[in-house]
Design goal:
Elements: H1 3-13, E1 17-21, H2 22-35, E2 42-47, H3 54-62, E3 66-69, H4 72-80, E4 88-90, H5 97-105, E5 109-112, H6 115-124, E6 130-135, E7 157-158, H7 162-172, E8 176-180, H8 190-204, E9 212-214, H9 232-250, E10 255-258, H10 262-265, E11 269-280, E12 285-289, H11 298-302, E13 308-310, E14 318-324, E15 332-340, E16 347-350, E17 372-376, E18 379-384, H12 389-393
Parallel strand pairs: 1-17, 2-3, 2-10, 3-4, 4-5, 5-6, 6-7, 6-8, 8-9, 9-10, 12-14
Antiparallel strand pairs: 1-11, 11-12, 11-16, 13-16, 14-15, 17-18
């Protein structure tokens, strides 16, 4: 998108505001599809947790994507967006048996990641096919908070527990229709991913009625110009060949599934915020924006880097700034960033704001969550309104009758 388009959106809808470019989402979907074109049956299940706006889900559905969900609420959003139940997979972690049963009753695919729930579900619902999430004990990902396939992870059933898993399946008579893994996010080392895939293939041999193998996702996207990223084309070539070989060994064609989230929507997103104050201290120049980690928490939570551009003065002389928010705690978006000279009132644009940004926003400090705008076919379309004070108190119950203010004592005459 052009800076002028973004500035016009900020002017029309106010700031802060999230903007998503549908053209970029579509191109990323097509890129991933083309990388695995030699696989007969490919299924991309968009990870709803990355960006769950209803309009984005409808866009994914129109592209032929399935949907990866982690909560019953995401399942219901997917159904509302038009996904068929069989195109939704439910991959929760640590949820109750009741929530899994509720999802199963809606007809979606079930993915279970622990032996306790597997045994309980199989004992009651042996007729419902189940996918199993395996922990391959492979460390992958760009941050410990987003590396989920290692030995100390809470996710998945350990490969060392396969004998126990097989005993549960045999005793309950369950039908295992899929095997799944997810090692982490921001994967760069393709060989590590392929190594984990071999563990998944070995595990798959224990089950004779599989329909699909789900390799998760976590592909790294660039966060700045010249940044390193997952070589999807190389991964596609290597994994496709190995997958096709395994299908021949297995005796029939299976579906190769992925659950991309960040890869599809990260680069499509922009977050626009106005500069309230430029503050010079003895050692730093701060640019304070009308936002904080209540709207964009990734830099504080993950140490994530978002490129920051002054779209109000793109050709200005570059200076060093620390871009910070208005939360009454440290909420630094970027330290000592080289940015075109900033004046109060300028609009700063945070790149890679499509994934895990709005979906992790909150009302901390009783601030409103910003609107979302879709840039589609050259037009800016509002897909979520800015919150208001009424939204902030909508579900609160005011127990004012319990707390009558004390009456002031009458003055002594």
């Amino acid at each position: 998108m052009r800076s002028t388009d973004l500035l016009n959106i900020a002017k029309k809808f106010g700031d802060p505001v999230y903007v998503y470019d549908s053209e970029k989402i579509i191109s990323q979907f097509n890129r991933l599809t083309n990388a695995f074109k030699s696989v007969k049956n490919l299924k991309l299940n968009y990870a709803a947790k990355a960006l769950s706006n209803l309009s984005i889900l409808r866009l994914m559905n129109s592209l032929g994507s399935g949907l990866d969900t982690v909560s019953i609420q995401e399942v219901k959003l997917g159904l509302l967006a038009g996904f068929k139940p069989e195109d939704i997979i439910f991959t929760p972690n640590g949820v109750s048996l009741e929530e899994i049963e509720e999802a199963a009753a809606l007809g979606v695919r079930i993915n279970i990641d622990n032996l306790s729930i597997l045994e309980q579900f199989g004992s009651k619902h042996a007729d419902i096919p189940v996918c199993i999430r395996i922990n391959p004990h492979v460390m992958a990902g760009g941050n410990s908070n987003i590396s989920v396939g290692h030995i100390d992870s809470k996710f998945g059933i350990s490969i060392h527990q396969i004998p126990h898993l097989l005993r549960i399946v045999e005793l309950t008579g369950m039908n295992i229709n899929g095997i799944h893994m997810h090692t982490g996010s921001d994967i760069l080392d393709i060989d590590v991913f392929l190594y984990a895939s071999e563990i998944l293939f070995e595990t798959a041999k224990h089950f004779k009625s599989l329909e699909f193998i789900d390799f998760g996702s976590g592909f790294k996207v660039p966060y700045k110009e010249g940044d390193i990223q997952t070589n999807i084309e190389e991964l596609g070539q290597k994994l496709s060949g190995r997958f096709n070989e395994f299908c021949k060994e297995y005796g029939r064609e299976l579906t190769l599934a992925f659950e991309p989230g960040k890869f599809l929507v990260s680069e499509a997103g922009y977050f626009l915020a106005k500069v309230n104050v430029v503050k010079q201290t003895t050692s730093t120049v701060f640019a304070s924006v009308d936002s904080g980690f209540n709207h964009l928490i990734r830099p504080m939570l993950y140490g994530a880097s978002h490129q920051i551009v002054n779209i109000s003065n793109p050709k200005g002389r570059e200076r060093y700034y620390s871009v910070v928010g208005y939360i009454c705690e440290t909420d630094t978006f970027g330290n000592n960033r080289r940015i075109s000279e900033i004046s109060e009132g300028d609009i700063l644009c945070f790149h890679n704001a499509g994934a895990y940004c709005f979906t992790m926003a909150s009302n901390y400090n009783s601030r409103f969550r910003p609107p979302e705008v879709l840039w589609h076919n050259g037009k800016a379309i509002l897909i979520r309104e800015r919150e208001t004070f009424d939204d902030l108190i909508r579900n609160q119950v005011d127990a004012k009758e319990l707390f009558e203010p004390k009456k002031a004592k009458e003055a002594v005459k």
